[in-house]
UniProtKB/TrEMBL annotation:
Keyword tags: Lyase
Gene symbol of the encoding locus: ECHS1
Protein name: Enoyl-CoA hydratase, mitochondrial
Organism: Anas platyrhynchos platyrhynchos (Northern mallard)
Entry's family note: Belongs to the enoyl-CoA hydratase/isomerase family.
Pfam families recorded: ECH_1 (PF00378)
Pathway: Lipid metabolism; fatty acid beta-oxidation
Amino acid sequence: VPVPVLLAARGCSSAGERGSGRRERPSGQRFLQVQKAGSKGSVGLIRLQRPQALNALCEGLMAELRRALDAFEADAQVGAIVITGSDKAFAAGADIKEMQGKSFQQCYGGAFLAGWDRVATVRKPTIAAVNGYAVSVPVSLRALCRVPHARGRDSWRSPPAVPITPSPGAGGTQRLTRAVGKSLAMEMVLTGERISAAEAKAAGLVSKVFPVDKLLDAAISCAEKIASNSKLVVAMAKESVNAAFETTLAEGNRTEKRLFYATFATDDRKEGMTAFVEKRKANFTDS
Ligand SMILES: CC(C)=CC(=O)SCCNC(=O)CCNC(=O)[C@H](O)C(C)(C)COP(=O)(O)OP(=O)(O)OC[C@H]1O[C@@H](n2cnc3c(N)ncnc32)[C@H](O)[C@@H]1OP(=O)(O)O
């Protein structure tokens, strides 16, 4: 049973949101629904809910998202996080109406977007369950899903964290807007071209494709599986995978090796290997 998580809220203003429809929820959030999910409450579930603007990422939404991520990061029960959207959109990129009137001075001086990479710095694996539009991927997909590729099998030392998207077949209009890397994001802005979930998968953008009605369950179940591993070692694995993306091959390998050596200082490494040899389920203590 999902457990609501209480967080403070602040907000943006868009046409329909000034009316009664966009009031704060009792939980305190205006633009998100934040819950714990999974049979053991080990999955932090964040649903972007700003339907009037197709979940465009305004500053208020991003502030709530940061707080939700901070809360899940600090929550010892939570081992992985799922971020999803609403029926029509995962997220329509940054809020154009909010950006429209900004000057360079306001952007640069006011450190516009400064806190947005919190999504990328979360140490717990994050899965993006992408339903519908996902525009401007550097923000709304890749950045929301900092460990973008499934790497090997999910064992105690190598958990995958995968972006997931539904099949475009269900409903017909469920499409990903083309917004891949920096250059394709630009192409998207210029052409408005769209790609299907299958094409996105072929381009390495997403790891798994599900029918819309199965998407969230699949993402939660994947997150639960990750969360059942040692949280300590999972964090090391994520750090290592990120290093592989952010540094040279040699530096990535060095980081991975160092972190692997470091696992030998943990009880969970010993328990994981012992359980493997004894052919039993490991009992991790996150220590
Ligand atoms: C990250 C950085 C630095 C930059 C960026 O992200 S730039 C922004 C990139 N995003 C976009 O360019 C997407 C803009 N949106 C669209 O192209 C379309 O909305 C769509 C293709 C995603 C969906 O089209 P559709 O016809 O189905 O829906 P609309 O009528 O266009 O939208 C419904 C409703 O949502 C508002 N909306 C949509 N996207 C944004 C946005 N990014 N910022 C603010 N508001 C947005 C849209 O205005 C409309 O609301 P109103 O009817 O009240 O105007």
